[in-house]
Amino acid sequence: MRVYCVVHERNAGPGVFGRFPIWIPGEQPTPSLEDVDALLIFGGSMHVDQNDEHRWMSPEKEFIRDALERGTPILGVCLGSQLLAEAAGARPHRMEEPEIGWYEIEITEAGAADPVVGPLAPSAELFEWHHYAAPLPPGAVELARTPGSLQAFRIEGRPAWGLQFHAEVTRENLFSWLGGWDDAEARFTDFDPDEIRAASELRIEEQNEIGRQLAARFLAQAARTVS
Length: 227
What we know:
Blueprint: E1 3-6, E2 22-23, E3 38-41, H1 57-70, E4 74-77, H2 79-87, E5 93-107, H3 109-112, E6 123-133, E7 140-145, E8 150-155, E9 160-163, H4 171-179, H5 193-226
Parallel strand pairs: 1-2, 1-3, 3-4, 4-9
Antiparallel strand pairs: 5-6, 5-7, 7-8, 8-9
Helix pairs in contact: 1-2, 4-5
């Protein structure tokens, strides 16, 4: 199965989800969807509404819309989930309070029955880092939530899932994000990077195993779609 990763920043790639060909919008030619069986779309420090600041974003959005219309299996993470939600008709927006750190994520009744998210039920503590969130797209199913935002959804009739949480992130990449705190938008918040680092030391290995299993479930669903 030909799996492509859409990577927006080099330290925000597929992590524990696996090793696959990577497309970096703005640096590399857009792959042909004829050559793609499944897409993994990851995060980045940029925001979903910054088309003017990042000229590659509009072509990427068109690529994602085309993939969704074709029925290409898609798993979007953080920014990737927001781009997927927008392609499906939602309007992502800046949150009043970002979510950065470890959060208890509630799995909905529909989420518990979902083949990708279901094993996380009834809840899981997972890593977040986002200033924007997406509402539920039209015709989509809410799979997970925190009090602050939608955390996972599936687009009905399409093999497409969005995850707001960072189940993919490795210890190395997470700590590189924290190491860049003073240059990140997060520096304007009241979150404490040292507290997040200490919590991450305790939790990242468990989450890494959750992430590997989650990715494997998505890829199994994708394989059924393309077989």
